[in-house]
Amino acid sequence: MGDVIGLQYDERKTRCKVIWVMDSGPLQKIQAGVQIVTGQDCPWKNELSPDQLAAPIEPNNRRRFARHRVDFPLEIRDERVQTPMRVNATDVSGNGCYVESILPLAVGTMLRVEFWIDSEKISTSAVVRTSDPGVGNGVEFIGLPPETKQRMQAHFDKIDPLMVNTFERKASE
Question: What is the model's pTM?
């Protein structure tokens, strides 16, 4: 998961990120879910109906902070077991992150999370909010004061290459 691969349909090619992989038995072998990388064209666009081509309607976004697609190392512990797991989170914000895992934890599982922002070690309570089998968990940081969440968000804004490019373009305009 996370690798970028090339796909081809007829003569058209595109780049996709692997978002899940599953062994589906001897007949179908291995299946993978992919997402077309931003800026790439859909190679089978001509085969889709107008309804399928329409951009998906996003429900009201209740997130307090923008998410960033950056790798973010952290250590999580299920508070019942205390065995640490070192993972790389994706889609991080000052309020939480997504932890990719083939065997995700159950919704409601209480966690202890530790990570570093610059030279500061941060330790907080968290709770599993979503559980996607074969993909991972959405985790909300529940033990951080608002000023720490703001500092984290500023850190992610600074290190996200997409945000940096956006800021550089706006500054040059």
Answer: 0.58
